[in-house]
Design a protein that fits this description.
With about 120 residues, this protein is an all-alpha fold. The protein contains 4 helices and no strands. The protein folds into 2 domains: about 40 residues, no CATH class; about 60 residues, no CATH class.
């Protein structure tokens, strides 16, 4: 038994469910008929495009030090981050990378240099 609701309400009864499924299948049938009416369907170029993987896995030989400037540009352009926010997020990673490299005995002039201690570590 259905009660009248607003237009956005989806009734959970079997009758309304089958009605919506029937409407969806009618739309799908219309698309299928139009596709079959096209000469040369299915198009081999379209199928070929989906079968070829354009993204080739890149084999990494080792980790590189993240580049702050290129990351900031990427984050601003693709993720709409501010430059300040991107810098805050990457500085943690840069610190981690530099500390691990320093611990393993590598020295690099590009490594971060501490100017002062802001917060002391509590054990």
């Amino acid at each position: 038994y259905c009660e009248p609701q607003d237009t956005n309400y989806c009734c959970p009864c079997d009758w309304h469910f089958s009605e919506s499924e029937q409407q969806q299948s009618l739309v799908e049938e219309g698309v299928k008929k139009k596709a079959k009416a096209c000469e040369g369907f299915p198009f081999p170029e379209v199928i070929h495009e989906y079968l070829i993987s354009k993204d080739k896995p890149v084999k990494l030989s080792g980790f590189q030090r993240p580049n702050l400037l290129s990351f900031q540009k990427f984050a601003v352009k693709k993720m709409n981050w501010t430059e300040q926010y991107a810098c805050e997020k990457l500085c943690t990673l840069l610190t981690y990378y530099d500390m691990n490299r320093k611990k393993s005995g590598h020295t690099d002039p590009k490594q971060l240099q501490a100017l002062r201690v802001i917060k002391t570590r509590i054990r």
